[in-house]
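Field reference: sequence -> structure
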Amino acid sequence: MVEPFSWVPTGINTDVPSAARVYDFLLGGGHNFASDRVVGEKVLGVLRDGRAIAASNRSFMRRAVLLMMQHGITQFLDLGSGIPTVGNVHEIVQQENPDARVVYVDHDEVAVSHSQLILEGNPNADVVQADMCAPHQVLTDPVVKDLIDLSKPVGLLMVAVLHFVSDEKGPADVVARYRDAMPPGSLIALSHLTADFKPQEMGAVVEAMKHSRDPMYFRSRDEFLTMFAGMEVLPPGVVAAPHWYPELGPAGEGGPEDVYVGVARKV
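Structure field:
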């Protein structure tokens, strides 16, 4: 069954929830289906601050992009970018530098379709439908090769996506393959949900997402730290999202600490 919305690509099974659309629901967006809202409500039923956690992740992404710009980064690759909402990467960077280049990557058809709509006519931003766990496929895509110059530093974003990568796929290995492909001076922003503070509630979230297209795998801080191997982690290190560069913008001080974040430099 397909709900009658113009932004829904032909053939999408809207009965199967996806992480991108559940996240859109938690952020208050309108590009989600009944199946996504059912899962989202289940998440909120066991995790009352679920919307605040999603917003905290989104806020970290914005601050990470601003820091990257301070370091002279002018091209960005946003992996697992999700459904566009207010404050997308291209909006942040092109407000300051219209020539800055951005490529979004997501495997969700709705996320890609809506991204194409909002990026139409923007020569310096585009979207690729691909699995971020296949770095070679992503980095050799014609759109990526056209807009991203891998001889110059890149701002690589993997925000709120690594907790959808199973142990079998090896999230640390996925990050390492992108790291190895980036030129020195590139900055890599990572964030990851954890069950360190609310194991029972987060366990229920995992259960709620189990039958979606994107099951979740929450990890400890020590497990998250392994994903920064071979890179120089910038101060303040790997911390809860509200404590990472709050001076760069709203960070939700005193809010949920269920998201670990960090930005590291490829040396």
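Note: The longest strand covers residues 187-193.
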